[in-house]
Every structure is written in C-alpha cells, then in structure tokens.
Write a structure and sequence with these properties.
three-stranded parallel β-sheet; two-stranded antiparallel sheet; 10 helices; 7 strands; binds nicotinamide-adenine-dinucleotide
Length: 261
C-alpha cells in the first residue's frame, strides 16, 4: 500500500495496510508538513469511528517514508503553518537548533522555500524517528511527543475536529509552559519564548476564556491520562520534557488564564 496525502490519508492507508492479510508493507508519501514530521513517521495508524477519533487502529511502522518537499508548494499556508506547531514542539522538547532557525527568520519558515525549511523538517523527522525507534508502543519515552497535546486534544474534541491539530497543539504548549512555570520548572521568559515563537509564524496561542469547564474533564479522558488521573508532559527547562502526574486543580485553572482570551 502506498499512502499519498496528508495525515488523514496516510493514517487510513497505514491502517488498511496493517489490516489487509494481517499486515502488508506500507510506504508513506506525506504531502503536508504535519504528515512529514509527525503522522507518516511514527507507525501509529487509525481511523475515526462515530464513537470517537482514532479508536480503531494499529501500530504498523512504514517500510519507507518519502517526504518530497515539492509537494508542499500547493499546500495552503494555514496548513503549512499548522504543521510548524509540531516542528516547534520538537524544538522545545529536543532540538534547540530548531528554535534558533525559526527565530532567525520566522516569516521565512512559513513556506517550503525558506532558507531553513528543509532543515527544519529534517530535524523534526530525525527527533520523531529517534523517539519512536526507542519506544514504538509508547511505554515510556514516546510520551514526550505529546507535549502540548493534553489541552490540544481537548480543544480539538470541543471543536468537533474542525480545528487544525497544529493550532490546538500551539495553544496547548503555551498552557503546558505556564503549568511548568507555576510548578517552578520554567521561567516567565520561557513562557514568553513559547508565545513569541508560535505567534511569530502565525500560530494561535489563545482560546475562549469560558471554555475551561468543558475542556478540563476531557483532559482527564486523554489517552496519556492514567485512568482518570491526569498526566501531562511539561518542560523542566527548555529541552527537558518530563511527566507531571495529577497537577493541582487550582494550578491548572490558573495556568489556563495564560491562554484565555
Ligand atoms: N498517526 C499519527 O501519529 C498522527 C500524528 C498526528 C496527526 N495525525 C492525524 O493527521 C491528521 C492531520 O493531518 P494533516 O494536518 O496532514 O491534515 P489533512 O490530512 O486533513 O490535510 C489537510 C488538508 O490539506 C490537503 N492537502 C494535503 N496535502 C496537500 C498538498 N500538498 N497540497 C494541497 N492540499 C493538500 C488535504 O486534502 C486536506 O484538506 C489528523 O487526522 C490527525 O489525527 C496522525
């Protein structure tokens, strides 16, 4: 099976390949930034059913991934920028050079012909490949890739999946940074760096102030949560992701103020 398209397509192609004859090889040809740096690389495949997103799926690593940057030329800018959220995430959790390259010329980073565009994508893929090679089934290290995703997934669910994944993750990273600041692990400057970096490429960093009571219960249903106990990935200093179990409720509520609009 060859999957050519964005993450929605390569997830479906991967799942078809995982299921057909109990598994045939899949080659993924992602045509979005998000697909290149995230969806097509990790071996997670899934389809959505009426009961929820990604509920039917399998781990089925691709036999190969061909990321042809020329396919990005037709990608709408909003989709390109949404993919940059995952690139910047990789910068915050593992590769500070990514942050420096984005900061060097943020506008330049928002399209496929930027000076650093190729390197930004390559560096992100390298981090993802390294992490999933060490922990395909998310029994440990892989959870660091979920940075920004706890609130991000709750926003996507509340928006009935009409909100771009990368946009939701961008807001989720600012929230996670503020949680870390309140927990004494990041500085005010680190939180400001999150906001500046994300807004400089055009990503959102705020969400409706009144949405917190709806978002909070969904966060505990997230698959990273253990039972109904909330577990988030936060940074103990830039580049050092750690798990944070059962953050105090008042801390979470206060942290939401950092993204409330
Ligand atoms: N398997 C994983 O580990 C994983 C990780 C992250 C996200 N995902 C999944 O990936 C999906 C999001 O992926 P996405 O951001 O690529 O979105 P997408 O697949 O929905 O594609 C976004 C839009 O861009 C269009 N498109 C794709 N390539 C194009 C191109 N080169 N030129 C013009 N238009 C193009 C698509 O038709 C679509 O309208 C979600 O379903 C998410 O659940 C999976």
């Amino acid at each position: 099976v060859v999957g050519i398209g964005g993450g929605a397509t390569t997830d479906l192609a991967g799942f078809a390949a995982a299921s057909w004859l109990r598994g045939v090889p899949v080659v993924q040809v992602p045509t979005t930034v998000l697909g290149m740096v995230d969806a097509a690389v990790g071996g997670k495949t899934a389809i959505d059913i009426a009961a929820g997103k990604n509920l039917v799926g399998a781990f089925h690593p691709p036999a190969g991934v061909l990321a042809d940057l020329s396919t990005l030329e037709t990608l709408p800018r909003t989709d390109y920028v949404a993919g940059l959220a995952e690139v910047i995430k990789t910068g915050f959790i593992a590769d500070g050079e990514i942050l420096r390259r984005v900061a060097d010329d943020p506008q330049d980073a928002t399209g496929p012909h930027g000076r650093h565009s190729r390197e930004l994508i390559e560096r992100s893929i390298a981090v993802k490949a390294r992490v999933v090679a060490a922990d395909l089934r998310e029994s440990g290290l892989r959870e660091i890739l979920n940075y920004g995703h706890t609130l991000g997934h709750a926003i996507e669910k509340l928006e009935r999946y009409t909100f771009r994944h990368g946009d939701a993750v961008a807001i989720g990273m600012v929230f996670a940074a503020e949680v870390a600041r309140l927990a004494g692990k990041l500085t005010q400057q680190d939180v400001a760096l999150h906001k500046e970096m994300l807004t400089s490429v055009g990503l959102p960093v705020t969400y409706r102030a009144g949405a917190w009571p709806e978002l909070r219960p969904t966060m505990s249903l997230d698959k990273k949560a253990r039972g109904t106990r909330l577990r988030m990935i936060i940074l103990d200093g830039i580049g050092n992701p750690v798990g944070y179990d059962s953050p105090p409720e008042d801390l979470l509520t206060e942290a939401y103020q950092a993204v409330a609009r």
